[in-house]
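>> received
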Amino acid sequence: MARKFLYLVALVIVLVVGARLALSFYPEAMTRIAMEPSIKFEAQPALQPKVYDDPAMWFARPGMTGTNPVKWQPDGMLPDSSQAQVAVFFVHPTSYLKKTHWNATLDDPQARQIAEITVRANASIFANAAEVWAPRYRQATLGAFVSDDPAARQALDLAYSDVAKAFDTFVAAQPPGRGIVLAGHSQGSYIVKRLLADKVKGTPLARRVVAAYVIGWVVDSARDPALLGLRACTTPAQGGCVVSYLSFSDDADPATMRQAYERLANPAGTAMPIPPQILCSNPLTGGIGGNAPASANLGAIVPDLKMDHAKVTPGLVGASCHADGTLRIGPGPAMGPFVLPGGNYHVYDYVLFWTNLKRDFETRAAAWQTAH
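>> returned
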């Protein structure tokens, strides 16, 4: 018992130090020192083509044994008896916080535990989908997002190659014509954008996209619709569109987050000549931009330190799209030790609007089913 307690303490310390430094990207120089690997990129063999036929390669999928993290619900929330006849592919955010390698191994216990927590907190908004699939993958370390080293792109390419194989397995398992949702957070959303551009745009699969939740990573309103083949969601019942936002307190400075995006979006690895026009979907209205009061928030979930339990808290924050494209939430609530420096609520992008996002998914899925 004592060993388990010490492990939990160690996990919390790693989360606080690693996530607060790295995920915030502020200050960038300190983040590089703390999180950027000093070794060369280690090439790893490609996964076998059928590796994702193995249920052990998934955090969630149909027919899995044991506890499905997607079915987790906050305290007092009863399971929804209705079911949306669409399938969801969810890519978890970065949970590998070490600098000893550029990519996590599939058997890293700490990265796996944190990933399971994020799947539980975030992908649970899709709990009433017919199917939810969430793959394990050799994710890039956090330091890859602040590094100018070519190894950073190699690490992200490796992570993408794993998830691309998982996506192929997911698609092959779906009956013809079933609607699909692609969703992610942070690194997961970076990968979802690549999937949309490489495997969905211009294919018959594009007509089956109910929505793409590209949350916690920049979607450029000027460039990305053409690259992804999807426009931004402008109304709650719209399908075949993208939802994306970045959560900050009113006094935050998101410049370093934007710089991290530009580093990866620009092949030259430098600032883009024309800054991105950051899409700000408003999770409280289902549209783009505007302001919504806290009274429109049907329920954030406030988790405990173990991330095992959470309380539904209506009206916790409002949502206002700032001129710079970020989503501002007021002075920012007390959410525990994982609020990042500079008023960055990145870790809580989903949970601050959990109930509204759940309804957003259900509304879009129902509208898509009616239309098809």
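>> The chain has a mean pLDDT of 88.
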